[in-house]
Amino acid sequence: MHPLVIFGITGRMGQSLLRALPGAPGLTLNAAVASATSPWLGKDAAQSGMAATGVLIGADVDAALRGAAVAVDFSLPQSVAAHATACAAAQVPLLVGATGLDRATQETLRAAAGRIPVLTAANTSVGVNVMERLVAIAARSLGGAYDVDIVEAHHRMKRDAPSGTAIVLGEAVAGARGETLADLAVFDRHGDAGPRRDQSIGFSSVRAGDIVGEHSVIFAADGERLEITHRAGDRMIFARGALRAAEWLVARPPGLYGMKDVLGL
Q: Which residues contact residue 64 at a Cβ distance below 8 angstroms, ignoring those fewer than 6 apart?
């Protein structure tokens, strides 16, 4: 059994990870971490009607990592760099599922990957990661004659837009065409935007209700349209994928990994 630390335990994904943990027999909860101002500090990690875990929520990152075999981080983006630095110092592998990471945080993760295995995943769903591969195949096969737009939808509380998964899907399209997303992405259309720029990749975001997550990549040409879509109906799909990846990460050497490595894609 590998002792697991969960950063961001009070969030939707933190609680989903707890619900999924019985289905990951190779992992056991070692510590649950929230921010220093959380009203949940000192309470049992399991909320929302779940059976008590016996693990109390704390804010001391270094204490949480003692004896841990792997950590999973679904906390706020501004906390990830400090968690990564602490994991590297403690030699604890880290999976980061938080999105909206700034460049400085990404650099911190790359530095940590020199000392420990670090897996970053904008989306830990197995289905979404298979979708990314299918999108790359479609982009390569259809070529630049097809316009591409990416539409994503999430719940009203999601902070970043477009979603990290939408960005990854856009990068899959651009990479398959031998381009970089920064050169092709169009994130904003309003007013008299003019005709579509050739080869561009458009993004649209919906934030409404309790939508768990939906992503569609649209390839459109004259007289033809292909859509590749993934719809998440339950956060448990992300939790199960994250725990599968965390268990895989334990035995890896230092380096930067993704879900494609876990799934052999």
A: 5, 30, 31, 32, 33, 58
Q: What is the CATH number of domain 2-120+235-263?
A: 3.40.50.720
pLDDT exceeds cutoff 90 at 265: no
Tokens of 249: 């990460």
Domain ranges for the chain: 2-120+235-263, 126-232
Of residues 11, 191, 221, 19, the one with CA closest to residue 97: 11
Predicted local distance difference test score (pLDDT) of residue 166: 96
**Per-residue pLDDT reduced to its tens digit, 202-244:** 999 999 999 999 999 999 999 999 999 999 999 899 999 999 9
Q: In this predicted model, what pLDDT tens digit does every residue of 29-43 receive, in sequence order?
A: 999 999 999 999 999
43 catalytically annotated: no
Instruction: Give me the catalytic one of 154, 155, 190, 260.
Output: 154
Q: 3-class DSSP state for residue 113?
A: coil
Q: Tell me whether residue 83 is exposed, middle or buried, using C-beta atoms within 10 angstroms of its C-beta: 0 to 12, 13 to 18, 19 or more.
A: buried
Task: Verify whether residue 155 is a known catalytic residue.
Answer: no
* CATH fold match for the domains 2-120+235-263 and 126-232: no
- CATH architecture entry for 126-232: 2-Layer Sandwich (3.30)
Catalytic option among 2, 43, 155, 158: 158
- Tell whether pTM > 0.85: no
Q: Report which of 259, 214, 216, 261 is spatially closest to residue 241, judged by C-alpha positions.
A: 259
3-state secondary structure of 138: helix
